[in-house]
Write a structure and sequence with these properties.
Blueprint lengths: L4 H13 L4 H14 L5 H10 L4 H9 L6 H14 L4
Helix pairs in contact: 1-2
Organism: Lutimaribacter saemankumensis
InterPro entries: SDH, SDH_sf
GO biological process, one term: tricarboxylic acid cycle
Length: 87
């Protein structure tokens, strides 16, 4: 059974704010509040997968300390644009 879009968005928003480190809570809450509604199903799949990654890795990717895996690079760049850390 497919998850209804509204339920999926609520779940992803909750996962965005219940992270392991406060910095990622703040980053992903801001991103999810400004972009999730506009993402298509495939983009939501990538975001959902990103949320399963380790917070320390995510923080390094978003802060530009390390390159993200190819499958997350466009999403990480979009997150960086939203939070204002793009180079």
């Amino acid at each position: 059974m497919t998850e209804p879009r509204d339920i999926r968005l609520k779940r992803l928003r909750m996962r965005s704010m219940r992270r392991g480190i406060k910095e990622m809570d703040m980053i992903l809450i801001r991103y999810s509040g400004s972009r999730l509604d506009a993402l298509g199903p495939d983009e939501l799949d990538v975001y959902d997968a990103l949320l399963s990654e380790n917070d320390q890795d995510l923080y390094q990717w978003v802060s530009g300390q390390a390159a993200p895996p190819d499958r997350f690079s466009a999403l990480v760049e979009d997150i960086r644009q939203v939070i204002g850390t793009a180079e």
